[in-house]
Design goal:
eight-stranded antiparallel sheet; alpha+beta; 692 residues; 10 helices; 35% strand
C-alpha cells in the first residue's frame, strides 16, 4: 500500500494512504493532520484510485510544491516529495526505496561525506533533528532539493558578479533601443493611478501584495500563475462557501487621494469555479471612516475574460477612496487582472438634501444615506436582506432615485433577493416628527419570502462615541462632542450589535398594514434638561408631545427609581386625559354619522381639530386620521333631522348603548329647539337618566 513519510515539527512519521480521498491540512478533521501554523486548514488532497495517486491543491494560501514546482493537480510517482510550508511529505510504495531529489548546495540536509553520491536507500532521507533545524534557519523547508549545479570549490562571487554585469548590459541595451525608437519595451500607462498595483507580473506567486479581503475571514486571496489576462500572473480570489461570506471584496489596501470629481475604474475578471456575479467596488473615506460604499451593477458569469468598467463620482466630503472587485454568490475561484483607474468622467454623485431645515442628508446613487445635524452622525446607512442558510444581499448594487417634498424625502430602489437574485423593490421615507428624524424602509411582505431578517448597517464618523452596548434594547445612545443622540427602534427590532466603527441593526420580517413590512429607526437629540420638567412645559397645550418625552425617558431605562416613579405617574395621568378627550371626539363623530346633519358634522370636525392639535403625534395621529376619513364620508341630510335622530337614539337605547343614545338626544335638543318631536326626545331622555 502506498504511504507518505512526513517530516514536520522536528519529527518524522509515516502514514499509509487509504483508497479514495486523503486530505492533508492543519485541521484535526483531516485524514492526515499536520498542525503547523501557516498550513491551510485543508491544504492539499491525495486521491488514491487503483494504486494510482494524484495530488490536488485545495486552494491553499501558501501553495503545494511538488519536486520544487507549485502544482494544482499532478500524478505522484514513487520518490516524489511534496513541500507544504515547512513540512515535507515523501511519497513511496511499501517495500521499495527511491533516490533523493537533487537539492542545491549549501541547503542540503545530508552530511558532507555523502555529497555527490546518489543513495538509493530511503533511510538517507531521514535526516537528524539538528540538521532539519539548521535547514529551517537558513530559510528552507525541512528537506530541500540537492543542487545539481552547485559543486564544492565554485567561486560564487565571480559567478554572481558576472551575471550582474550581463544583466546591466542587457538593461542598457534595451533602454538605448527604446530611446532610438527601435525597441518594443513595456509601455507605461501614465494616466493609470494604479500603475504600481494594476497588474501582478512583478508580484511573488502565492503572495498578497497590498491587497486585503473584506470581510477578512475564511476566503483567500493570492497571486497565481494559473490564469492571466496579460502576462503570466493574476490575482485569484478563492471564495468561501459560508453564508456569512455571500459577498466578498478584494480591495486594495492603500487609499487614493480624492482630487477629482469623478473617476473611471475598470478591471478584467475571469470566472474559474466561481459561478456568481461580479462587480466593481469603490469605498469613499472621510477621516478614516467609510462615508459611502458604491458598486457597479453586477455582471453574470462568462467563459472568457470580461472587462468591468464604470464611472464613480466623489460624494461631498470624501477625502480618499479604495477600489476593488466584489464577488456575489457561493464559493469558488475568481481571477482578477489589469486594473485601471483614471481621473475624470461623470457618474452619479451622492445628493445633499435637507429635511425640515434641521437634518442634512446625503443620498448615494445606490440609496445609502449619511446623516448630519451640524456634525456628522451616521454614515453609509444601507440595507441587507439575509437568509441564514444561503447568505445575504446588499443595497449597494442597484441604482435608486429620490424626491423631496415639504418636510420629507422619499427614496425608491431595488435590492437583489438573497436566494433568487430577483429584484425586490423598496421605499425609504425620511421625515421629522417632534424634533426626531424618522428613517423607515418599506417592502411588500410577499416579496420577502425566504428572507429571515432585514438588517441595517451604519458607520460611525470620527468623533462619534457609542455609549450603549449590543443587545435587544429598543434604544441605542451615542455622543458627538458632548452632544447626546439616540436611535429609537420599533417592536420589530431583534438585536443591536456594535461592530468596529459602526452598528448592525437586525429586524424581524413581519406583515403589517396593507401587506407591507416596515423597519427603521428614529434619530433624536437628547437634551440635558430633566425629562419631567420638559414634559410639564408642554403638558397644558401639547400633552401628546409631553407624553412622547416621558415615554422616551422610560424606554432608556437610565432614570433613578424616584424619577422613574414620577415619570410613570405622569404618563398614567396623561393617558387618562387623552382617553377622556378622545371619547368626546368619538361621540360627536358617531352622532354626526347617525343623524347626517351639517351642524353635527361641523361640531365633530371642531372637536377632532382641537384633539389633533393637542395629541397629534404617533399612535394618536393615526386614529385621528381614521376619524377624519369617517367624517369626510358622511352625506349630510338636514330634512326632518329631529325625527331621524330620535329613531337612531331609540335603536341605540334598545341595543344597550344608553350613553350614546343620551349624547344623540342632547344634541337634538340643542339643534332643533322648535321641532314637534322634542316632547318624545325629552321623554326618552328622562327615561335613560332615571335608569342611571
Amino acid at each position: 500500500m502506498p504511504k507518505l513519510i512526513i517530516q514536520a515539527l522536528d519529527k518524522e512519521w509515516s502514514v499509509e494512504l487509504k483508497e479514495g480521498s486523503n486530505v492533508v491540512g492543519r485541521s484535526a478533521k483531516c485524514t492526515i493532520p499536520v498542525q503547523e501554523q501557516n498550513i491551510s486548514r485543508e491544504h492539499c488532497e491525495i486521491v488514491l484510485t487503483g494504486g494510482v495517486a494524484t495530488l490536488f491543491d485545495k486552494g491553499s494560501m501558501n501553495g503545494t510544491i511538488l519536486n520544487g514546482k507549485r502544482i494544482w493537480e499532478q500524478k505522484l510517482n514513487p520518490g516524489d516529495h511534496v513541500r507544504i510550508v515547512n513540512a515535507v511529505l515523501w511519497f513511496e510504495t511499501k517495500g521499495k526505496s527511491y533516490p533523493m531529489p537533487q537539492e542545491k548546495k549549501g541547503r542540503s540536509t545530508v552530511n558532507e561525506a555523502d555529497q555527490g553520491k546518489r543513495q538509493t536507500d530511503v533511510q538517507t532521507r531521514r535526516v537528524s533533528s539538528t540538521k532539519r533545524t539548521e535547514s529551517r534557519r537558513s530559510g528552507g523547508g525541512l528537506v530541500q532539493d540537492y543542487a545539481a549545479w552547485g559543486r564544492p570549490g565554485v567561486n560564487w562571487g565571480v559567478i554572481l558578479g558576472s551575471l550582474a554585469g550581463v544583466a546591466a548590459l542587457i538593461g542598457v541595451a534595451i533602454l538605448g533601443l527604446q530611446f532610438l525608437g527601435k525597441g518594443d519595451g513595456p509601455k507605461i500607462d501614465r494616466d493609470n493611478l494604479l500603475r504600481n498595483s494594476s497588474g501582478f507580473e512583478t508580484a511573488t506567486v502565492g503572495a498578497l501584495p497590498g491587497w486585503k479581503l473584506d470581510p477578512p475571514a475564511n476566503s483567500e486571496l493570492e497571486v497565481t500563475q494559473s490564469a492571466s489576462h496579460t502576462g503570466t500572473r493574476s490575482l485569484v480570489l478563492t471564495k468561501s462557501r459560508s453564508p456569512e461570506q455571500s459577498i466578498v471584496s478584494a480591495m486594495l489596501s492603500g487609499k487614493v487621494k480624492a482630487q477629482s470629481d469623478g473617476y473611471r475604474f475598470s478591471a478584467w475578471v475571469k470566472w474559474g469555479t466561481f459561478t456568481g456575479r461580479v462587480a466593481l467596488k469603490v469605498s469613499w473615506v472621510r477621516n478614516d471612516g467609510v462615508l459611502f460604499e458604491t458598486c457597479s451593477e453586477p455582471v453574470e458569469k462568462s467563459s472568457e475574460w470580461v472587462e468591468l468598467s464604470d464611472t464613480f463620482s466623489r460624494p461631498s466630503g470624501a477625502q480618499a477612496f479604495r477600489v476593488g472587485v466584489t464577488a456575489i454568490g457561493r464559493g469558488g475561484r475568481l481571477y482578477i487582472d489589469d486594473l485601471r483607474l483614471v481621473a475624470g468622467g461623470e457618474g452619479t454623485s451622492a445628493k445633499p438634501v435637507s429635511v425640515n431645515g434641521t437634518w442634512d442628508i446625503q443620498i448615494s446613487d445606490r440609496g445609502a444615506i449619511s446623516i448630519s445635524r451640524g456634525k456628522s452622525l451616521l454614515h453609509n446607512v444601507h440595507l441587507r436582506l439575509e437568509n441564514e442558510r444561503e447568505g445575504y444581499s446588499s443595497q449597494e448594487f442597484l441604482p435608486a432615485e429620490f424626491n423631496k417634498d415639504a418636510g420629507s424625502v422619499r427614496i425608491s430602489g431595488e435590492i437583489l433577493h438573497p436566494i433568487t437574485f430577483e429584484s425586490v423593490p423598496y421605499k425609504v421615507h425620511l421625515q421629522t416628527n417632534s424634533g426626531q428624524l424618522w428613517v423607515v424602509y418599506e417592502f411588500q411582505h410577499d416579496d420577502l419570502r425566504q428572507v429571515d431578517r432585514i438588517v441595517l448597517l451604519s458607520s460611525f464618523p470620527r468623533g462619534v462615541t457609542p455609549s450603549s452596548s449590543s443587545g435587544s434594547s429598543r434604544f441605542f445612545e451615542f455622543s458627538v462632542r458632548n452632544n447626546q443622540f439616540a436611535l429609537r427602534y420599533p417592536d420589530q427590532i431583534q438585536k443591536i450589535h456594535r461592530m468596529e466603527g459602526g452598528i448592525r441593526q437586525e429586524f424581524s420580517v413581519t406583515r403589517g398594514e396593507k401587506g407591507s413590512t416596515k423597519v427603521g429607526f428614529a434619530l433624536l437629540p437628547i437634551g440635558k434638561e430633566d425629562h419631567l420638567k420638559a414634559a410639564l412645559k408642554k403638558e397644558r397645550d401639547y400633552p401628546g408631545e409631553a407624553l412622547e418625552i416621558l415615554r422616551g425617558a422610560e424606554r432608556r431605562m437610565a432614570l433613578s427609581q424616584q424619577d422613574a416613579d414620577r415619570v410613570s405617574k405622569k404618563v398614567s395621568q396623561l393617558l387618562k386625559r387623552e382617553a377622556r378627550e378622545w371619547e368626546k371626539v368619538q361621540s360627536a363623530t358617531y352622532s354626526a354619522e347617525s343623524l347626517a346633519l351639517s351642524e353635527l358634522v361641523k361640531d365633530a370636525e371642531l372637536k377632532l381639530t382641537a384633539y389633533r392639535r393637542r395629541w397629534g403625534v404617533g399612535e394618536f395621529e393615526v386614529k385621528s386620521s381614521q376619524m377624519e376619513t369617517l367624517l369626510s364620508s358622511i352625506k349630510v341630510e338636514d330634512q326632518d333631522g329631529a325625527s331621524r335622530g330620535l329613531s337612531q337614539a331609540r335603536s341605540y337605547y334598545e341595543a344597550g348603548s344608553s350613553s350614546l343614545a343620551e349624547e344623540i338626544l342632547l344634541a337634538l335638543l340643542d339643534q332643533f329647539p322648535g321641532s314637534p318631536a322634542l316632547e318624545d326626545v325629552q321623554e326618552l331622555l328622562q327615561t335613560i337618566q332615571a335608569e342611571e
